[in-house]
Fold this sequence. Notes:
Layout: H1 8-14, H2 19-33, E1 40-44, H3 50-57, E2 61-66, H4 69-82, E3 87-90, E4 102-107, H5 118-131, E5 132-143, E6 153-161, E7 164-177, E8 182-193, E9 196-207, H6 211-221, E10 224-231, E11 247-254
Parallel strand pairs: 1-2, 1-4, 2-3, 4-5
Antiparallel strand pairs: 5-11, 6-7, 7-8, 8-9, 10-11
Amino acid sequence: xxxxxxxxxxxxxxxxxxxxxxxxxxxxxxxxxxxxxxxxxxxxxxxxxxxxxxxxxxxxxxxxxxxxxxxxxxxxxxxxxxxxxxxxxxxxxxxxxxxxxxxxxxxxxxxxxxxxxxxxxxxxxxxxxxxxxxxxxxxxxxxxxxxxxxxxxxxxxxxxxxxxxxxxxxxxxxxxxxxxxxxxxxxxxxxxxxxxxxxxxxxxxxxxxxxxxxxxxxxxxxxxxxxxxxxxxxxxxxxxxxxxxxxxxxxxxxx
Length: 255
């Protein structure tokens, strides 16, 4: 098994989908819910930068934080190739400080799921609150399970860029522990290019949080007020009015 996210190029290609719509939603939230102009955005667990790069293209000053030095190196080169700049930091999203606060923060692709305990999630929320200016927003997504009965889900797809074909398979909610709410995710990326083939496999633990549990933890962390939550990146689809939601997107505002 390779190290987590050991293939940034493959990962970036495989997961480069639906991002324009997601960034459209983020910009909508910035404009509607923030109590200050949003110019500087922090992307937490930014990975290979699918959202950060698109925000830079729209004129936002971007900061990215990720635990993987390889992701940060890849993203720095990706931004430079597009003619954009960003402040990119290797760091832990439960223990970081920015020299200059930002107007908004995001955390996408259920990256909060890597925080396996309430203590880690509380530490994360408090760090984000410190990094934000008053009236700024924190927008993040979390996967949900409609039921714990046979919840495992899997997806397979392929994407092509130039001569490189990336085939991906991903499964989540394997081996669920109903007490800790921790489960295993598995990802395989196969790259085929110029007759060569490389395969990267990744397996890690993640944690589910339920909506009311999340609201209680946000209140316990302090620093934020709850604004709204949605099923997916759809500003008209409020979570409570959605049938069988699989993804909640949460909007918080710094007090």
